[in-house]
Amino acid sequence: MPSILIIDDEKKICDLLARIIELEGFKVFKAYTAKEGLKILANEDILVVISDVKLPDKNGIELVKEIKDKKPYVEIINLTAFGTIQDGVHAIKNGAFDYITKGDDNEKIIPLVYKAVEKASLQHRVYELEHKIFKQYSFHSILGNSKALKDAVDLAVKVAKTDATVLLLGATGTGKEVFAQAIHYESQRRLNPFVAVNCSGFSPELLESELFGYKAGAFTGAIKDKKGLLEAANGGTLFLDEIGEMNLDLQAKLLRVLENQTFIKIGSTQTSQVNVRIIAATNRDLAHEAEMNQFRLDLFYRLSGFTINLPALSQRKGDIKLLASHYLNEYANKVNKPKLKMNEEFVELLMNHSWKGNIRELKNVIERVVILADTDIIDAGLLPYEFQFTKFAESFSMEIKFMEQQHIKKVLHYTHGNKAETARLLGIGLTTLYRKLEEYGFKE
């Protein structure tokens, strides 16, 4: 049932109007001041506001703008006893749905409310969808409390508000595309497209046609014009993942886009104009490659104006349990399993793993574990073989060290503490013996 809020300091008029609208099946809230109205608006799911222009604590026309700033999907109908064209224009400019005089409200108000509710309902659905997408892809989706991650997020938050080109550096699986999406959805371009392309997934010729598009007849098989990804991302953001794989000729064309937002389609002689933000990412050392002439130095300088280094999972060990728990619940929900819990041994093995594949590897491991789980307690036996082997290797290594320690102790006792003779009998250098004695805490 749609909810309507009436704000009018004349109690009799407010009550009468509320009764009329309630008879149409709407849920009605009443307020006699702007302050009361804003409080109800904050706590209730209101679609339409009917507000008097002259309120004791605020002008109803100015109130329109304040409501729109708080809840853009809400529609506002202004009522006034003495309507003027100037006030009506001002109200509509502020975002009011309509502006009517109280003498006309008996005939106009109900049809007007229905139209306002219809429009507000549609806008509310769009608003909810946008909010859901924003929550999914904004910085709120980036989990972790480590300093290295927070430093990267802080930089990304600051640059998101601008149109600056961004270069994301990090090993494979560190979440470069997640960061790129968050920067886009926290920017003024959020309502426009976010287009991602992995440069390593195409041959140089195919990548060029994908990025810039082509004209019909440009090459064999080009039977009609094709729009490139640059045009598809117009007004929004183009994310170029693994940009270090792009060849030098194509890099020159990309440089032109970065410098003046223009490009030429394959097979065309005309210049095309776009308005697109570029976010690039790589796991390669572009500075070194530029010095070796394997990457254009001018493009590197253009891309690296604002660089963000994403930490490997091994640099944020404190986040592993948090991330594992999150993905555990996520994948359990997908396969309709109850909430799962990790036992201490399972967590310990996760913490000790090297995670060369970073977050991507962690997600894959957790997904596998959820599929295999038969109980709500996740134990170490569900982890892949390499996790078990790591534990065995560490245990074996500790056992070897203990045996070595005991052997050195026995030989020292045999030589009555003569370190030179001990080293000779052990077949190691005297320096090595001293290092091992220090390591094992032997005292003189």
Structure notes:
- By secondary structure, the protein is of the alpha/beta class.
- It is built from 18 helices and 14 strands.
- It has 4 domains: 130 residues, Response regulator (Rossmann fold), CATH 3.40.50; 171 residues, Rossmann fold (3-Layer(aba) Sandwich), CATH 3.40.50; 71 residues, Helicase, Ruva Protein, domain 3; 52 residues, Arc Repressor Mutant, subunit A, CATH 1.10.10.
- The longest helix has 33 residues.
- It is extended, with a radius of gyration of 33 Å.
> How far apart are the termini?
86 Å
What is the CATH T-level topology of the largest domain? Answer: Rossmann fold
Give, in spatial order, the strands making up the sheet with the most strands.
2-1-3-4-5
CATH homologous superfamily identity of the largest domain: P-loop containing nucleotide triphosphate hydrolases
SS-based structural class? Answer: alpha/beta
Assembly state (oligomeric)? single chain
Q: pLDDT average, as an integer?
A: 88
Number of domains: 4
Query: What's the alpha carbon Rg, rounded to whole Å?
Result: 33 Å
Largest sheet: 5 strands, parallel
Strand content: 5-15%
Question: In which range does the helix fraction lie?
Answer: 40-55%
The low-confidence parts are none
- Architecture per CATH nomenclature, i.e. the level-2 architecture of the largest domain: 3-Layer(aba) Sandwich
Short structural summary:
This protein has 444 residues and is α/β, with parallel strands linked by helices. It has helices spanning 11-22, 34-43, 60-70, 85-94, 105-137, 147-160, 176-185, 204-212, 229-232, 248-260, 286-291, 297-303, 320-334, 344-352, 358-372, 385-414, 419-426, 430-439; strands at 3-7, 27-31, 48-52, 75-80, 98-101, 166-169, 194-198, 237-241, 262-264, 271-273, 277-282, 307-309, 341-342, 377-378. It has four domains: 3-132, Rossmann fold, CATH 3.40.50; 139-309, P-loop containing nucleotide triphosphate hydrolases (Rossmann fold, 3-Layer(aba) Sandwich); 313-383, Orthogonal Bundle (Helicase, Ruva Protein, domain 3), CATH 1.10.8.60; 388-439, Arc Repressor Mutant, subunit A, CATH 1.10.10.
